[in-house]
Amino acid sequence: MSQIIYLDNNATTAVAPEVLEAMLPYYRQAYGNPSSMHSFGGELAHDIEQAREKVAALFNAQNTEILFTSCGTESDNAAIRGVLEAYPEKRHIIITRVEHRAVLSLCHHLENRGYRVTYLSVDRQGRLDLEQLRLAIQPDTALVSIMYANNETGTVFPVDKIAEVVKERGVIFHTDAVQAPGKLSLDTQRLHADLISISGHKLHAPKGVGALFIRRGTRFVPFLIGGHQENGRRGGTENVAGVVGLGRACELVLEHQSREREHLGRLRDRLEQGIVRQIPEVLINGDPEHRTASTSNVSFSYIEGEAILLKLNEYGICASSGSACTSGSLEPSHVLRAMGTPFTAIHGSIRFSFSRYNTEAEVDRVLEILPKIISGLRDMSPFWTQFKKKK
Amino acid sequence: MWDYTDKVKKHFFEPHNVGEVLDPNAVGEAGSLVCGDALKLSLKVDPKTEKIMDAKFKTFGCGSAIASSSVLTDMVIGKTLEEAARITNRDIADELGGLPQEKMHCSVMGMEALEAAIANYRGQAAPKAEEEEGAEVVCKCFGVTDRKIERAVRENNLSSIEEVTNYTKAGGACGSCHWKIDEIIQRVRETMNAPRSPESPKPLTNLKRMQLVQETLDREVRPELRKDGGDLELVDVDGKLVKVRLLGMCSGCQVADFTLKALVGRKLREFVEPDIVVEEIRE
After folding, report:
1. What pLDDT score does B60 carry?
2. In the CATH scheme, what architecture does the domain A5-12+257-390 have?
3. Kind plus residue range of the DSSP H or E element containing B138
């Protein structure tokens, strides 16, 4: 296989060399347990606190407001279940139809446990109606959980305005911000969410570490119960190397943020413009005005996504698709369906997502290969033949 | 990432017989744009010998859909219509060196398009699933009838809802037809078992049956229910009628009836006897 062109950074990212560098000592020499009485282990607690400070800086928050977890899914689970347990009399949750599985499946599960869940819909561009949210809040609403940026389309929800609506009614607001770091501000002085989830491996830290911001004063019952780690809010020996890596990765995000956003946006626009110029019958999915700079979700009508991915894979190009055939189930992307995207377009949807390590040359290489793949598959498609005849 | 055989890959990356034959005298279509895969098969049949002289396909779909179509054209060229009519979805999958379970429906689509093309040649209307006389659409999401499910179960020896979904797509979306699919599986499997096993095992004694039922419930059913905070107890075994009571989260649950039919019934029929009937006792 030729050189890899990795355009699937919403799925996971490369560990930054600086991050790996920061982590290695904790695997080699400093393998102690931070809870130990001896200094060999015990002193690692300081390193954890330093990392916490760096993560807190990303949120413009205090150290005590940061909880380390094992991944984005754990952060979401801890946030939602932690709040529900703290308010046992409240039985209602509000989320959206386009949430990540970590929130969506959990809420389906909670429905079977007797909770009521309101699933807010989105419009054709994937936008929410804040009035609908306002009307959905009930006296026993425990929690509103709405993502910051959508992992499939990059559509950004106005979480600051959402927070206003939710906080006005005294309800807890959680946002899954796993796709946000590096692309959107997480300044909690301006974004008034009570809980915010992030995941290490989406921001050039390794897999197996995540964090949850818990605003001071938020009632929260620990999700993982065990030792006294994390101030008694999460049992389990700390993933010291992972936590240190996450700290370093957050530091890099803050350092590169403005330059990076511009870089990502330039790559995305170059790709989209090239696609639209060279390939007929394409559809760019998502809210064109409020989208993360890193994400491009494009539908190639009349052909199927898995076939496109298999062909791209032959050239070492990594992307993903919302097609039914790639999901393992027979259902195409719940996000695109919630947006009312036509079925022809959902099956042929491809998501390209960029990171700071991608280059214009890589985009140009994709633009050289992609049109041939699309026209080859369309020549094979009965619907493309039909469509051309109609024209 | 799907685990495709080399042959599937070969037929996907370099498909044979793409396109439409000139002046076809048999055309068959299967699948739909909404479902995510569709195949249009065109044949040139020699009217004297009824031999398929040429075959071409156009397919909208994933890697295995395209590979199934390509290999199908290879398989039918040179065969008479009568020979071609005997090709089953399993033959198509076997010819490809196998397909992932979740992709078996691609081979079913190939078989359906071939049948439609043969019917078209004979001047019969293509057997459109929804319009089959007396057939009932079981899966409304994908428009799959009981006939199609029955056939898939019989020809591929399927025994679970998941398998039926893999082969026909039925039940793959909203899931509200799962209990119906389960009933069809039971019904078809009973007729399959009867004539095929002349030396059926000795009938169980009441005591043995009770033992087996209790064991099966403890091993196969209760752990599943407990996962969801529920449980069940065996109340009585009256011949082949098994009475159970749901406990915990399961009792009074709206899907209780479904739970019983789908899980308890299936497991007991699988591990105890094929004609066990389950009843829920409510107090």
Report:
1. 95
2. Alpha-Beta Complex (3.90)
3. strand B137-139
